[in-house]
Amino acid sequence: MTHSSTPTTNEPDQPGRIRGIAGAVITVQGLIGARLYDVVHVGHERLIGEVIRLTGTRATVQVYEDTTGLRADDPVEASGAALQVELGPGLLGGVFDGVQRPLPAIRRAHGDFIARGARVAQLDRQRVWPFRPLVQPGDRVQPGDVLGEVAEVPHLMHRILVPLHLSGTIETISAGEFRLTDTIATLRVAPDGDGETAARIVPLTLMQRWPVRQPRPYLRKLDMDEPLITGQRVIDTLFPIAKGGSAIIPGGFGTGKTVTQQSLAKWSDADVIVYVGCGERGNEMTEVLQSFPQLEDPRHDGPLMNRTILIANTSNMPVAAREASIYTGITIAEYYRDMGYDVALMADSTSRWGEALREVSGRLEEIPGEEGFPAYLPARLAEFYERSGHVCCLGGDRGTAEPRRGSVTLIGAVSPPGGDFSEPITQHSLRTTGAFWALDTDLARRRHFPAIHWRNSYTLYDLTRWFRGQVHDDWELNRREASGLLQREGELLETVQLVGADALAETEQVILQVGRMLREDFLQQSAFGADAYCPPVKQFWMLKTILHHFYLLDSAVRRGVHLDRALDPALLADIARMREWPTERAEEEAYALMERADAAFLALRSND
Amino acid sequence: MGGEVNRSEFLDRHYTHGDLHMEPGTTNHPHRLLTKEYRTLSYAAGPLVVVQRTTDISYGEIAWVMLPGGVRRLAQVLEMDSDRAVVQVFAGTRGLDLERTRVVFTGDVARLSVSLTMLGRVLDGAGNPIDGGPPVVPDARPDINGQPINPYARDHPSEFIQTGISAIDGLNTLVRGQKLPIFSGFGLPANDLAAQIATQSAVLAADVERDTGRGEERFVVVFAAIGITHREATAFQRTFEASGALDRTVLFLNRADDPTIERMLTPRAALTAAEYLAFEQDMHVLVIMTDMTNYAEALREVSTAREEVPGRRGYPGYMYTDLAALYERAGRIQGKRGSITQLMIVTMPDDDITHPIPDLTGYITEGQIVLSRDLHRRGIYPPIDVLPSLSRLMNAGIGEGKTREDHRQVADQLYASYAQGRDLRRLVAIIGEGALSAEDRLYLQFAETFEREFIGQGRRDRAIGDTLALAWQLLAALPVTSLKRINRDLIARYRPDGT
To answer: Which residues of A touch B356 (CB under 8 A)?
Structure first.
């Protein structure tokens, strides 16, 4: 399996010549030796492009930069390699465009605007990294085995793996300070039987390359039994996602897709976050860039930026690179997964990626499918989401007592036209993803954030065992009770719209009251300030307190007490302030509040 | 090549003035020093012309279509093969024939002459002066398509702009570098509102400059009229003139009876001027573009003529990218003192906010101001419906040191209370007012007063302090215990009766 994935390199042949140009798509004559998805350099400015169709002696190329100014007969050179990313220390904290060119370096070289044909190294070649070997000369190693490690940031050891197409015996390996392209070790590779007789010595470096459109291999997929804790109450409590799972967040404009994605990027308990800004606003990328270095990582020392990799291909940057940005992001995510880390990738927005596919497909004059999208849209979406997973890493079952496991969790925002979820990208994404967090325009207009609607959303991940074991035995019980109440409240509100609240029975009024508490005091959560991150244990005790209040109210009303009398404004105000509880005192605070409520309701009884 | 004729003679005669073209013989391409002329047209329909047997044409280059009789029209290469070019003619193909019409390729992209002398000028939709004045003496000639700002070079917008409109300043605050559309409907006063914002902001900037003597408050307006009527265009010009803001304004006018395809150029030319003024001349530029719906129609027309696969409602699939390339030209850049703020008017066909034009716009811009036909009918001006309106960058631009410490919480409270009043209004329509409690009636009344006084301020210019004071005055009608969005300290400090 690993052999086929070898990124081979051919010598560049005679340059081809441009024959036609239409937007990001050009046709080239005489590009000898080019294979599908090989990278080519276009024109005198050597713009980056990728071969997407071959017909006879003509190749069709999508260009990752603005094609204005190109002319017929301009040269096109094959690079002999597929579109690749560079993988190695220096990725964390980085900001790259859709084809992994670092934006800070582009700015240094070309100024505040992105010039065409910007040539910068993907990873910093000058920086020196301390390398500590974990194998010795004479050791036999297989693809994916850990050669050694580099402390890339204080909390994360960057494990240097044996390239996934090589195995052999370590000849030399040394500790010390190395640049990315320095030789850190040499590997004696046995003859592979393809006519090769002598063993070769292969130098290994801190950096490797990988073609982005090819998923990185792993040993096997594992069950997903652990949640990705997001600190968002509506997600963790009602619609949790597993580490290695996938979810989509669709919503019309103004419903808070990006704010939700950013909250997830800030607070999820992943080791590494890859944030792909795909065809979105420039100012939003700036916000991440300016706020993440200031925000403390809640789990490790240092700023959040230390665990974050940003791929920014904003809406005004070339459309073909937007298509590539998703693959660049996922390949980097898989690379950290292979080291044994939990990675979460946020793609904002997959609709813009789909539209880039549609645009290129239109230029190719392919027969359109639904709403002009190409017929292969569902297949591409499925391929992408299937690159998520909780896996046993290649080489992860050797050398260590514990198998090395990693995960990639994918969370894709979707921007459905007109906020209508029946459109192709939402529908096809639903087929392959496990959680659906539906953003609702009406909730957003009422300033209910996060505007994830409890009635339309769902999760397919059953993480009850984990929550019962790690948080509280009653977790699932609470969750069901809360969902049921919200459902019932929704039905009752429809009735109220027609006949007014007075027509309801008192027990039903109780449900309205508690439904409102659930919505306002539990589900609503500010994306900023102290409430932005709410750990599961606090979520549990907050919910428990509300449900306890429900039982008291319900039984009081059933005994004939008027709801108006049963509602104690002081208690309600304190419930509204539960979000201010310090996490470590959540249980204590919850018991105190529940006991006060018990006492108040007891007093109510004796007054009767 | 068969199509070429004696070109230097021709150039001498024809390249006298005009903006979006190259001077004779100047080209930025090393392999070609002179322009080329062809008489090999094989197709002309709608805005498109096909020229055969072309060589060495570059993608996106500007061309002149020379009609029999000496009329020339600006055009651009849209698509090309090795010996054929598809050319889009901005002023339309009327009067064009295949035998005598010639096409001259300039070897360069569309450029605009920019300089400080543009201020106070009126230009056509393609950037040529139409006010009878001399051509703009260029300080630079940038490509009108611009280049994307490196996201890493951007600075996050966080500076409050006082528009003098309570519904905007108080609830949907605009900040420098933001792009905020006004979603309007046919017959709603979006243009009046835009003009009012522009003049009031300008007046304020002038005051600040006079009072503080600080030169950095250099505020200018770039106005792009895209297919608006003569009446609307004149109204804008008059408003600017009356307020004395005209000499701080660059007007680009493409009127309803001007060539539709020229609308493809108008916003690009305007934004190119804005970029020059903001990032080369350190000015704070407010770009007003009206009406983006007309721009999108032009885009659709070209797309249809090219027989492209249509997206929703016939608009091309790349409309999002195309609009984004315009809207994303707003912003701030680290280390630069100027800024570009965009206010664009989008008329929603049939008041439908899910129509592709407002929909795609809303996905790109940083919020939206939505006008309401209901408020307009009730004589409330500006008829801003604050519930669906939103400014995504508001939080960065308000609070202590920017507007006032209570701003966020007051805004939240106004929203919540007004939303409650509106809900009750709906309920009353069904079950009658009799079913309401006394407190409910207060909210109903609050919604009424809020619309009339806070939103319906008329043509008045209201400073942010006055807006907040009015907000507190209105909130005083509600029981103090119901002000849940404002903390107690602020209530004590700002509520009129102090409790």
So the answer is: 417-418
| Among chain B residues, CA nearest to A361 | B309
Phi-psi region of B126 (alpha: psi -120 to 50; beta: other; left: phi over 0): alpha
| Domains of chain A with CATH codes | 16-84 (2.40.30.20), 129-206 (2.40.50.100), 220-462 (3.40.50.300), 475-607 (1.10.1140.10)
Residue of chain A whose Cα is closest to the Cα of B318: A359
Helix, strand, coil: what percent of chain A each, to 5? 35, 25, 40
Quick: pLDDT tens for A413-433: 999 988 899 999 999 999 999
Q: Report chain B's mean pLDDT, rounded to a whole number.
A: 87
Q: How far is the CA of A22 from the CAs of A377, B83, B442, in angstroms? A: 22, 14, 62
Q: What's the CA gap between B271 and B266, in Å, rounded?
A: 9
Output the pTM of the full model: 0.90
Verify whether the Cβ–Cβ distance B79 to A20 is below 8 Å: yes
Q: Which residues make Cβ contacts (< 8 Å) with residue B225, sequence separation at least 6? A: B125, B232, B233, B236, B251, B252, B253, B254, B255, B266, B290
Q: What is the number of alpha carbons within 13 Å of residue B217 lying toward its C-beta?
A: 17
- Which one of A114, A362, A371 has the shortest CB-CB distance to B148? A114
With contacts defined as CB-CB under 8 Å, which chain B residues touch A95? 151-152
> Cα-atom radius of gyration of chain A, to the nearest Å?
28
Partners of residue A21 in chain B, C-beta under 8 Å: 59, 79-80
pLDDT at A541 over 90: yes
Q: Quick check: B151 and A282 CB within 8 A?
A: yes
Task: Give the residue on B whose Cα is nearest the Cα of A72.
Answer: B82
Rounded to whole angstroms, the Cα distance separating A27 from A33 reads: 15
Distance CA A216, CA A330 (A): 10
Q: What is the least distance, in Å, from the CA of B296 to any CA of chain A?
A: 16
Per-residue pLDDT tens over the stretch A88-97: 999 999 999 9
Chain A residues with CB under 8 Å of B175 CB are: none
A441/A254 Cα distance (integer angstroms): 7
Can you tell me the distance from the alpha carbon of B280 to that of B290, in angstroms, rounded to the nearest whole number? Answer: 25
Residues A45, A31: Cα–Cα separation, whole Å: 18
Q: Do A71 and B59 touch (CB under 8 A)?
A: yes
Q: Which of B77, B143, B158, B321 to mutate to test the interface with A (most CBs of A within 10 A)?
A: B321
pLDDT for A514 equals: 96
Q: What is the mean pLDDT of residues B433-462?
A: 92
What is the per-residue pLDDT for A371? 84
- Residue B18: its pLDDT value, please? 38
The contacts of residue A388 (CB under 8 Å, 6+ apart) are A244, A245, A246, A345, A407, A408, A409, A410
CA distance linking residue A174 with residue A189, whole number of Å: 18
Q: What pLDDT sits at residue A400?
A: 64
- Report the distance separating Cα B20 and Cα B10, nearest Å: 18
Q: What is the DSSP string of A377-393?
A: HHHHHHHHHTT-EEEEP
Judge contact between B145 and A68, C-beta under 8 A.
Answer: yes
